Protein backbone atom coordinates (compact mmCIF):
# COMPACT_ATOMS: atom_id res chain seq x y z
CA UNK A 1 0.00 0.00 0.00
CA UNK A 2 1.11 3.57 -0.72
CA UNK A 3 2.69 5.39 2.23
CA UNK A 4 0.82 8.46 3.44
CA UNK A 5 2.46 11.85 3.89
CA UNK A 6 4.02 12.56 7.26
CA UNK A 7 3.42 15.88 9.02
CA UNK A 8 6.57 17.55 7.69
CA UNK A 9 5.82 16.51 4.09
CA UNK A 10 2.22 17.69 4.39
CA UNK A 11 3.34 21.04 5.85
CA UNK A 12 5.78 21.54 2.98
CA UNK A 13 3.15 20.59 0.38
CA UNK A 14 0.72 23.11 1.85
CA UNK A 15 3.47 25.74 1.97
CA UNK A 16 4.29 25.19 -1.71
CA UNK A 17 0.68 25.41 -2.81
CA UNK A 18 0.07 28.52 -0.74
CA UNK A 19 2.53 30.35 -3.00
CA UNK A 20 1.71 31.92 -6.33
CA UNK A 21 3.09 29.91 -9.25
CA UNK A 22 5.24 32.96 -10.06
CA UNK A 23 6.09 35.28 -7.17
CA UNK A 24 7.08 38.92 -7.42
CA UNK A 25 9.98 39.88 -5.17
CA UNK A 26 8.62 42.63 -2.91
CA UNK A 27 8.86 43.73 0.71
CA UNK A 28 5.56 41.92 1.34
CA UNK A 29 6.62 38.60 -0.27
CA UNK A 30 10.21 38.55 1.01
CA UNK A 31 9.52 36.28 4.00
CA UNK A 32 7.31 33.94 1.96
CA UNK A 33 9.97 33.51 -0.72
CA UNK A 34 12.84 32.80 1.65
CA UNK A 35 10.65 30.76 4.02
CA UNK A 36 9.37 28.51 1.24
CA UNK A 37 12.21 25.97 1.66
CA UNK A 38 12.23 25.35 -2.10
CA UNK A 39 15.78 24.30 -3.05
CA UNK A 40 16.17 26.37 -6.23
CA UNK A 41 14.94 29.82 -7.23
CA UNK A 42 14.59 30.81 -10.90
CA UNK A 43 14.75 34.59 -11.23
CA UNK A 44 13.60 36.83 -14.06
CA UNK A 45 15.16 40.28 -13.69
CA UNK A 46 13.27 42.95 -15.59
CA UNK A 47 12.38 46.61 -15.53
CA UNK A 48 8.63 46.86 -14.97
CA UNK A 49 8.49 50.25 -16.66
CA UNK A 50 9.32 48.53 -19.99
CA UNK A 51 6.32 46.90 -21.69
CA UNK A 52 8.66 44.82 -23.85
CA UNK A 53 10.34 43.39 -20.74
CA UNK A 54 7.00 42.78 -19.00
CA UNK A 55 5.94 40.62 -21.95
CA UNK A 56 8.82 38.22 -21.16
CA UNK A 57 6.82 37.00 -18.15
CA UNK A 58 4.62 34.88 -20.44
CA UNK A 59 7.32 32.33 -21.29
CA UNK A 60 8.59 32.44 -17.72
CA UNK A 61 5.15 31.63 -16.31
CA UNK A 62 4.58 28.86 -18.88
CA UNK A 63 7.74 27.08 -17.69
CA UNK A 64 6.94 27.35 -13.98
CA UNK A 65 4.37 24.60 -13.45
CA UNK A 66 6.77 21.83 -14.56
CA UNK A 67 9.03 22.50 -11.56
CA UNK A 68 6.51 23.36 -8.85
CA UNK A 69 7.96 22.41 -5.45
CA UNK A 70 11.49 22.02 -6.86
CA UNK A 71 12.08 25.49 -8.29
CA UNK A 72 10.41 28.71 -7.17
CA UNK A 73 9.90 31.20 -10.01
CA UNK A 74 10.40 34.84 -8.98
CA UNK A 75 10.14 38.10 -10.92
CA UNK A 76 12.57 40.80 -9.73
CA UNK A 77 11.99 44.45 -10.68
CA UNK A 78 15.45 46.00 -11.06
CA UNK A 79 13.96 49.50 -10.76
CA UNK A 80 11.96 48.65 -7.63
CA UNK A 81 12.48 46.55 -4.49
CA UNK A 82 14.73 44.17 -6.44
CA UNK A 83 17.41 46.82 -6.90
CA UNK A 84 18.73 45.95 -3.43
CA UNK A 85 19.77 42.41 -4.45
CA UNK A 86 21.56 43.25 -7.70
CA UNK A 87 25.01 43.51 -6.10
CA UNK A 88 24.64 39.95 -4.78
CA UNK A 89 24.50 38.84 -8.43
CA UNK A 90 27.20 41.25 -9.63
CA UNK A 91 24.57 43.01 -11.73
CA UNK A 92 23.31 46.52 -12.50
CA UNK A 93 19.83 47.58 -13.73
CA UNK A 94 21.28 47.79 -17.25
CA UNK A 95 21.70 43.97 -17.25
CA UNK A 96 17.91 43.48 -17.35
CA UNK A 97 16.22 41.59 -18.81
CA UNK A 98 18.13 38.48 -17.76
CA UNK A 99 17.65 35.14 -16.01
CA UNK A 100 19.48 33.49 -13.10
CA UNK A 101 18.94 30.23 -11.24
CA UNK A 102 20.10 30.08 -7.60
CA UNK A 103 20.77 26.93 -5.59
CA UNK A 104 19.64 28.07 -2.14
CA UNK A 105 21.78 25.62 -0.16
CA UNK A 106 25.07 27.26 -1.15
CA UNK A 107 23.99 30.39 -3.10
CA UNK A 108 25.53 29.05 -6.31
CA UNK A 109 24.25 31.02 -9.30
CA UNK A 110 23.66 29.65 -12.81
CA UNK A 111 23.27 31.63 -16.01
CA UNK A 112 22.42 30.77 -19.61
CA UNK A 113 25.23 31.32 -22.11
CA UNK A 114 22.78 33.61 -23.87
CA UNK A 115 19.43 34.59 -22.37
CA UNK A 116 16.46 32.93 -24.07
CA UNK A 117 13.09 33.74 -22.51
CA UNK A 118 10.99 31.07 -24.26
CA UNK A 119 9.33 28.49 -21.99
CA UNK A 120 11.11 25.64 -23.81
CA UNK A 121 14.55 27.22 -23.34
CA UNK A 122 13.86 27.99 -19.66
CA UNK A 123 12.71 24.42 -18.96
CA UNK A 124 15.72 22.95 -20.78
CA UNK A 125 18.14 25.18 -18.88
CA UNK A 126 16.64 24.39 -15.46
CA UNK A 127 16.65 20.65 -16.13
CA UNK A 128 20.30 20.81 -17.20
CA UNK A 129 21.20 22.58 -13.93
CA UNK A 130 19.24 20.04 -11.85
CA UNK A 131 21.01 17.22 -13.71
CA UNK A 132 24.43 18.71 -12.86
CA UNK A 133 25.27 19.55 -16.48
CA UNK A 134 25.80 23.29 -15.97
CA UNK A 135 28.65 24.87 -13.98
CA UNK A 136 27.85 27.77 -11.66
CA UNK A 137 28.73 31.27 -12.81
CA UNK A 138 31.17 32.56 -10.19
CA UNK A 139 31.59 36.22 -9.32
CA UNK A 140 35.07 37.71 -9.45
CA UNK A 141 36.26 41.26 -8.98
CA UNK A 142 39.18 42.47 -11.06
CA UNK A 143 42.55 42.12 -9.27
CA UNK A 144 43.93 45.48 -8.08
CA UNK A 145 47.13 46.48 -9.89
CA UNK A 146 49.00 46.50 -6.57
CA UNK A 147 47.46 43.28 -5.24
CA UNK A 148 50.83 41.73 -4.31
CA UNK A 149 52.89 44.81 -3.43
CA UNK A 150 51.58 45.29 0.12
CA UNK A 151 52.14 42.87 3.05
CA UNK A 152 48.49 41.62 2.85
CA UNK A 153 47.99 40.21 -0.66
CA UNK A 154 44.57 41.00 -2.18
CA UNK A 155 43.00 37.96 -3.85
CA UNK A 156 39.96 37.81 -6.14
CA UNK A 157 38.06 34.87 -7.58
CA UNK A 158 40.14 34.62 -10.74
CA UNK A 159 43.53 34.76 -8.93
CA UNK A 160 42.67 32.68 -5.86
CA UNK A 161 43.64 29.23 -7.18
CA UNK A 162 47.12 30.17 -8.41
CA UNK A 163 48.01 31.81 -5.07
CA UNK A 164 46.28 29.59 -2.48
CA UNK A 165 47.36 26.32 -4.08
CA UNK A 166 50.93 27.33 -4.93
CA UNK A 167 52.84 24.24 -3.75
CA UNK A 168 55.84 26.33 -2.66
CA UNK A 169 53.88 28.60 -0.28
CA UNK A 170 51.97 28.36 2.98
CA UNK A 171 49.01 30.69 2.40
CA UNK A 172 46.80 32.08 5.17
CA UNK A 173 43.63 33.73 3.82
CA UNK A 174 41.04 35.92 5.51
CA UNK A 175 37.63 35.74 3.80
CA UNK A 176 35.77 38.88 4.83
CA UNK A 177 32.82 41.18 4.14
CA UNK A 178 33.44 44.95 4.00
CA UNK A 179 30.41 45.63 6.24
CA UNK A 180 31.29 43.02 8.91
CA UNK A 181 32.20 44.58 12.28
CA UNK A 182 34.18 41.51 13.40
CA UNK A 183 36.27 41.72 10.21
CA UNK A 184 36.94 45.39 10.90
CA UNK A 185 37.98 44.60 14.48
CA UNK A 186 40.62 42.07 13.37
CA UNK A 187 41.92 44.13 10.40
CA UNK A 188 44.81 45.68 12.37
CA UNK A 189 45.93 42.27 13.68
CA UNK A 190 45.89 40.84 10.15
CA UNK A 191 47.98 43.76 8.84
CA UNK A 192 50.44 43.32 11.71
CA UNK A 193 50.71 39.60 11.00
CA UNK A 194 51.43 40.30 7.33
CA UNK A 195 54.06 42.87 8.27
CA UNK A 196 55.73 40.29 10.53
CA UNK A 197 55.97 37.71 7.74
CA UNK A 198 56.47 39.96 4.69
CA UNK A 199 60.08 38.83 4.23
CA UNK A 200 59.29 35.11 4.51
CA UNK A 201 59.31 33.64 1.00
CA UNK A 202 57.32 30.58 2.09
CA UNK A 203 54.43 32.38 3.86
CA UNK A 204 51.71 34.50 2.25
CA UNK A 205 49.13 36.47 4.25
CA UNK A 206 46.14 37.32 2.06
CA UNK A 207 42.53 38.45 2.08
CA UNK A 208 39.52 37.99 -0.21
CA UNK A 209 36.26 39.96 -0.19
CA UNK A 210 33.80 37.05 -0.16
CA UNK A 211 30.86 39.30 -1.04
CA UNK A 212 32.39 40.17 -4.44
CA UNK A 213 34.15 36.88 -5.23
CA UNK A 214 32.95 33.27 -5.31
CA UNK A 215 34.98 30.05 -5.41
CA UNK A 216 33.90 26.77 -6.94
CA UNK A 217 34.83 24.44 -4.09
CA UNK A 218 34.79 26.72 -1.04
CA UNK A 219 31.56 28.14 0.39
CA UNK A 220 31.83 30.85 3.04
CA UNK A 221 28.97 30.92 5.58
CA UNK A 222 30.15 33.64 7.98
CA UNK A 223 32.71 36.41 8.33
CA UNK A 224 35.55 36.46 8.94
CA UNK A 225 36.46 32.92 7.91
CA UNK A 226 40.17 32.02 8.01
CA UNK A 227 41.63 29.19 5.96
CA UNK A 228 45.24 27.99 5.81
CA UNK A 229 46.54 26.34 2.62
CA UNK A 230 49.81 24.50 3.40
CA UNK A 231 52.61 24.13 0.87
CA UNK A 232 52.98 20.86 -0.98
CA UNK A 233 50.75 18.74 -3.21
CA UNK A 234 47.19 17.68 -2.44
CA UNK A 235 45.32 21.02 -2.30
CA UNK A 236 44.91 20.81 1.48
CA UNK A 237 42.92 23.36 3.46
CA UNK A 238 42.77 23.89 7.24
CA UNK A 239 40.17 26.12 8.90
CA UNK A 240 41.52 28.32 11.69
CA UNK A 241 39.11 28.44 14.63
CA UNK A 242 41.07 29.95 17.49
CA UNK A 243 41.57 33.44 18.94
CA UNK A 244 42.08 36.17 16.38
CA UNK A 245 45.22 37.91 17.63
CA UNK A 246 48.71 38.25 16.18
CA UNK A 247 50.48 35.99 18.66
CA UNK A 248 48.04 33.10 18.22
CA UNK A 249 48.10 33.51 14.43
CA UNK A 250 51.89 33.44 14.57
CA UNK A 251 51.98 30.27 16.71
CA UNK A 252 49.60 28.64 14.22
CA UNK A 253 51.87 29.50 11.28
CA UNK A 254 55.11 28.51 13.02
CA UNK A 255 53.55 25.18 13.99
CA UNK A 256 52.64 24.33 10.39
CA UNK A 257 48.92 25.07 10.49
CA UNK A 258 48.06 23.71 13.94
CA UNK A 259 48.21 25.18 17.41
CA UNK A 260 50.57 23.51 19.90
CA UNK A 261 48.81 21.67 22.69
CA UNK A 262 48.82 23.68 25.89
CA UNK A 263 48.16 22.26 29.38
CA UNK A 264 44.66 23.10 30.52
CA UNK A 265 44.65 25.52 33.44
CA UNK A 266 42.22 25.05 36.31
CA UNK A 267 40.06 28.14 36.58
CA UNK A 268 37.65 29.28 39.24
CA UNK A 269 35.74 31.34 36.66
CA UNK A 270 32.71 29.82 34.91
CA UNK A 271 33.35 29.04 31.21
CA UNK A 272 32.44 31.78 28.75
CA UNK A 273 29.51 31.13 26.46
CA UNK A 274 30.86 30.26 23.03
CA UNK A 275 30.02 32.47 20.10
CA UNK A 276 28.10 30.99 17.14
CA UNK A 277 31.29 30.41 15.18
CA UNK A 278 32.97 28.72 18.11
CA UNK A 279 35.87 31.16 17.81
CA UNK A 280 35.49 33.27 20.91
CA UNK A 281 35.77 36.45 18.84
CA UNK A 282 32.36 36.50 17.16
CA UNK A 283 31.39 36.37 13.51
CA UNK A 284 29.01 38.07 11.08
CA UNK A 285 26.42 35.94 9.27
CA UNK A 286 25.83 36.02 5.55
Automatic annotation (TrEMBL):
It comes from the Eukaryota. Residues 254-286 are annotated as: Disordered. GO terms for cellular component: endoplasmic reticulum. It holds the Pfam family Thioredoxin. SUPFAM superfamilies: Thioredoxin-like. The keyword DNA damage does not apply. It catalyses: Catalyzes the rearrangement of -S-S- bonds in proteins. PROSITE patterns: THIOREDOXIN_2. GO terms for biological process: protein folding; response to endoplasmic reticulum stress. Keywords: Disulfide bond, Endoplasmic reticulum, Isomerase, Membrane, Redox-active center, Repeat, Signal, Transmembrane, Transmembrane helix. The chain crosses the membrane at residues 71-91. The keyword Endoplasmic reticulum applies. Residues 129-258 form the Thioredoxin domain. InterPro entries: Thioredoxin-like_sf (IPR036249), Thioredoxin_domain (IPR013766). Its EC number is 5.3.4.1. One of its GO terms (molecular function) is protein disulfide isomerase activity. Belongs to the protein disulfide isomerase family. PANTHER family: PROTEIN DISULFIDE ISOMERASE (PTHR18929), PROTEIN DISULFIDE-ISOMERASE A2 (PTHR18929:SF93). This is protein disulfide-isomerase. It comes from Ceuthmochares aereus. The lineage of its organism: Eukaryota, Metazoa, Chordata, Craniata, Vertebrata. The gene is Pdia2.
Amino acid sequence: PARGLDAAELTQLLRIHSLELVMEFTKETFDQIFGAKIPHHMLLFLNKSSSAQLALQDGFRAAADTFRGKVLFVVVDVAGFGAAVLSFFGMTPADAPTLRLVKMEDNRKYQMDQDDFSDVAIRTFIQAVLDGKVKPRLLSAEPPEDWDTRPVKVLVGKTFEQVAFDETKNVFVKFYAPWCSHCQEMAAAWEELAERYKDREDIVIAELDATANELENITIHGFPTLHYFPAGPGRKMVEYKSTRDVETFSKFLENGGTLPEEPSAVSEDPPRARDPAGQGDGSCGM
